[in-house]
Amino acid sequence: MQLLLRRINCSRRHNQIKNQRKTNELTKTFIEEILRFNKTHNIVGRSTESEISLLDVIDCESILAYTKSATNVLDIGSGAGLPGIIIAIHQPQTEVTMSEKNKKKAYFIKKTIRTLQLANAKILDEAITPKLITENKFDIVTARALASASKIIKMSKHLLSKEGKFLLMKGALEKINVEVAQLENNTYSYTIHKTKNTETDRHILEITQK
Asked: What is d(CA 84, CA 99) in angstroms, rounded to the nearest whole number?
């Protein structure tokens, strides 16, 4: 019995190492794709691998602690695929839809999905509006530095599943407090999570329907 347990644990560790290696490789390729595309199209405000890694990739990885159980995620205004591509890389069991109305950025996301062979990711190359209808509703709606919480809710609340939540990547706590003061108290409740990334003043604003 003990020998069987050791073999099972060894197999699990092997799979974890294998999966982590694949995640690292995909992330590295993603950064390289950003740098290559950025030379002519300027889709992010960074110019080096270390900047993108620290200020974009690691920053976006901070949301993963809150998305692990999601079946499907909508990333609004995904830009270069941040955080949508990061979620798709780390969570192959989660279907990730990225919305981006800028055609160059949407093309980059589509190209990157093919390059990384992310079967769980897709791009919606149009803006999210209250009139937009999607095939499925989403467990999580996220956005990074896109708009105020109230604006994001207004444009996308009809796309959120009944038990779903908003996970918005925000900056300074003072600005977040201004935003949450504008929420409808009878409709929404919220929690502000401080991330561990010391390089950015990053908070995750979690909003749920009461």
From this structure: 9
